[in-house]
Amino acid sequence: MMKKKQIMILLIMGIIIGGFFYIINISTFEPHMTGGNGNPALLFMIPTVPLYVYFSILLYTTFYYFLVKIVKMRS
Length: 75
Prior knowledge:
mainly alpha; 77% helix; transmembrane; membrane; DUF3955 domain-containing protein
């Protein structure tokens, strides 16, 4: 049986990564706006990339687990 802990980690990481992408999106300046002291959204991009890679691997393994489980049930 799939561990509830792994599913909760997926849910929490999805919310965190979504929040980072949202902050990056609202922090990005449009061409007619002045940026001030650089682009602070770059600071949120640093942790977003490794988190997204880990999230993708965890999501793949979870779906693979369920796919194998469904195939075994049908056999």
